[in-house]
Structures are given as C-alpha cells and as structure tokens.
Specification:
Layout: E1 13-15, E2 18-22, E3 31-33, H1 51-104, E4 115-116, E5 120-129, E6 135-146, E7 151-158, E8 170-174, E9 178-184, E10 206-215, E11 218-227
C-alpha cells in the first residue's frame, strides 16, 4: 500500500532490564516495549545501603568524632596551661616592675638609711604625695612579704614623718609561696649575695628578688636583680662619705 511504511524489525535490545525494539520511523525516537515482555516484573537493584555499608559509615564517623574530640580536648588543656602560666607570671611581673621602678628612683640621703632584710627592704626614694600624687618629696619606700596573705606589700611615707602602720600598706602582688630579698655590695668585701644589709653609709650595688610560686604542685622560682648606680650616701651638707 502506497504511503505506508513497513516496520524495520531490528534485533531486540536489553534496555534497563526489559526487551525493547525500535520502529523504522526515523522521525520517531520513541521506543516501544515488546508486547511479549510487557507486564512482566524484573528485580531491580536496591537503591539503599546494605547493613555492611551502614556499619562502615558509622565506624568512619565514630573515628572522625573521636579524633576531633581528642584534638579539642588537647587544645583546651594547652590553653588552660598557658593561661595559668601567663597569669602567674603577670602577677609576679607587676610586683617586680614596681620594685624596679622605685629602686631606679632611689637616691643617697644621709637621714634615711637603706635597710635590707630577707623579707623586707626600705630605702630613700622620691615619693608622690598630696592630691592625686601631685607633689614629689623625699621619703621612704618599703616592700615586705606577708606569709599569711601570701602577698607582697608596698608602703611609702615622706620625710620626716614616721613609719605608718601596716594598715596603710598597698598590696602589690599576691599568690606567692615565698619572697626573698638579697643584697650584694662592691667587691672585694661585698661580692656575694647577702640576706641582710646593715651598712648604714652604703647602698648595695645590686638587689635581687626571688619569688616562689606553686603551679600544679610544682615549685616555680622567678628571680630578678636590679643594679644601683648609687653606692654611697651623703650627709646633710652634700659631702660624700
């Protein structure tokens, strides 16, 4: 019959688990399922994970969580240790810096003696008095360690006033197990550290402070020494002695 195209039978193809054949019409790309196979069901591959795959994924995720947790725990411990160490050092640095500053401002004055003991030290220095420390006067600065409060205290008073009571002392630093002052004079007689300074006419060449702290039941010692350029005191007329 004219105008009618006959089907071009081609080999059956296995496509997605079904037998199909194509028509000879080149303008039609539709695929027709073979009537002989239509209506039959074929098993498909399951789209979900098997039990073994699920267990493997769970094991991998558990390992990742454990590793991340260990890293975070280690980081927190390092941070705590660093913070504790820095806090202790900063507390000691405040006291050491203030002592160094006062010793740098010390001056030879015959009427105020330099007195040094193992737990306290006092020396002539320029002190600030008046409203908001607006006036500078010659006076005495004293540092001492109090074992009861585990603190380093500072006192000052202007000349010729007497030493006030300890209730006027200012707490400089705290948290110390012990604080010790040592003194060294000029050689040959003063070339070693001494626990006391009794020379009324001389100022020690160097003053050392040893601060003992406890960190996690381990003792930590911080030491700093200060060198003085003034080693002699003057009398009231200004002559060297």
């Amino acid at each position: 019959m004219s105008g009618v195209r006959t089907a071009d039978t081609r080999p059956l193809q296995l496509m997605s688990g079904r037998y199909e054949m194509q028509t000879g019409d080149s303008s039609c790309n539709r695929r027709q399922v073979c009537p002989a196979r239509r209506g039959r069901r074929y098993p498909l591959r399951p789209s979900g994970m098997t039990l073994i795959e699920l267990l493997i994924v769970i094991a991998i995720m558990s390992l990742i969580i454990v590793v991340i947790g260990a890293c975070l725990t280690g980081a927190v411990r390092v941070w705590d240790a660093a913070r504790e160490f820095n806090a202790a050092e900063m507390e000691a640095a405040v006291g050491l810096t203030l002592v160094e500053k006062d010793l740098a401002r010390s001056l030879p004055f015959f009427l105020i003696k330099f007195r040094g003991q193992a737990k306290e030290v006092s020396f002539p220095c320029i002190v600030r008095t008046g409203p908001a420390g607006s006036e500078e006067r010659i006076g005495t600065v004293k540092y001492y360690y109090d074992a009861t409060s585990r603190s380093l205290f500072r006192q000052q008073w202007k000349y010729p006033d007497k030493e006030p009571g300890r209730e006027s002392a200012e707490r400089v630093s705290t948290g110390f197990e012990d604080v010790t002052f040592s003194y060294m004079g000029d050689p040959p007689g003063g070339g070693a550290w001494q626990q006391a300074w009794a020379e009324s006419t001389n100022i020690p060449r160097s003053v050392k402070i040893d601060i003992l702290m406890m960190k996690k039941s381990a003792p930590v010692m911080l030491s700093r020494s200060f060198v003085s350029e003034l080693t002699h005191v003057t009398n009231s007329t200004g002559a060297m002695r």
